[in-house]
């Protein structure tokens, strides 16, 4: 079952119809569904699909030769090209008279095995493939490699791609499509657990409820997802124990660099380098008040929801999981804490609703995030869940997100109106109140043109 990625498929198919040389760079973190997207696009199209190996030059050349032979004749062959130049010459011949897609998957492995491959590709794109009907797709899972060695100015391939796709996890709306029978609340919870990563979503059954899915797919020592964060850190980084300590510190509420470095026992400069690596992998994120992007006091949060869920629930329940008693502890140790966990998830859902799905915005959003600062009168810290600024920064939406079982009332509206005065950044403010459970009758009757009340069901209505 293929879900989502409509815009990416539309763009790829438009490029395919051009019949001229096209070069698409597709990249994103592991498990995000890059290869699935490519396979869906290549369906019923003549394709050389070469999955690069984390191996020697010789084995990669053999694998590429097999892929070319299969695409050319429809049968496997043991014939191996003498060099990548010979292989590319054959591809040029095949693409001279008909549209041909040539996919290099996990390009970083090929580049590590054959250091000159980027320069060789540059030469062929500039001189040999130029007048063919080739559609080259370069795909990679190493974000840093693809951004630094393929897309950056110094790369031999810089300027050769005609489109680039950074594949992101599904948002809450597309994630919900995996569980068509679920309630809106359960769809939101599954988004908060998986972060919209397709490979994680594939582990869960839409026929089971949330509890059974979690017990089977995460809180089981034999489940694939049980050790997923640890495996990813080992795969991507050289010192997984140190990175694990940093993520653990942030999961426990340490969000400032000084707090994190002190907890982990690292000098702040060194700790900052580790954090930068985790940010490049999409595991952590750096946040500043949306109106002050250059703030010298940022906070660091876990951006990958699956990592956040794992570090929130697994370590504290490890004994129960390993002893096979987690089912008995589930209600108290997990279910009772899900609502608190979902607070930040709901904020992200509300931001994405505004950015991608809301058809009734008062203006086009220029930037969006959260805001915090001190109230000059009370000297107390104020935090606003969502602040969205117009492109000219004269108008703003002040948003409050409540993922709880109580109805939101007039006091909540008055509070964010007061916070807007504290922030004092916009000529005109609009107030969006998001609530999982709804609003009091008195607030519903409070008709103010600049106020919108938005429920969880509204987020899923389209």
From TrEMBL:
InterPro entries in the record: ATPase_dom, DUF234, P-loop_NTPase
Q: ATPase domain: from which residue to which, for each copy?
A: 2-204
CDD domains recorded? Ras_like_GTPase
Secretion signal span = none
Which molecular-function annotations from GO does this UniProt entry contain?
A: ATP binding
One Pfam family, please name it. Answer: ATPase_2
Per its UniProt entry, which superkingdom is the organism in?
A: Archaea
Domain annotation DUF234: ranges: 310-405
Q: What is this protein called?
A: Putative ATPase (AAA+ superfamily) protein
Q: Native species of this protein? A: Methanomassiliicoccus intestinalis (strain Issoire-Mx1)
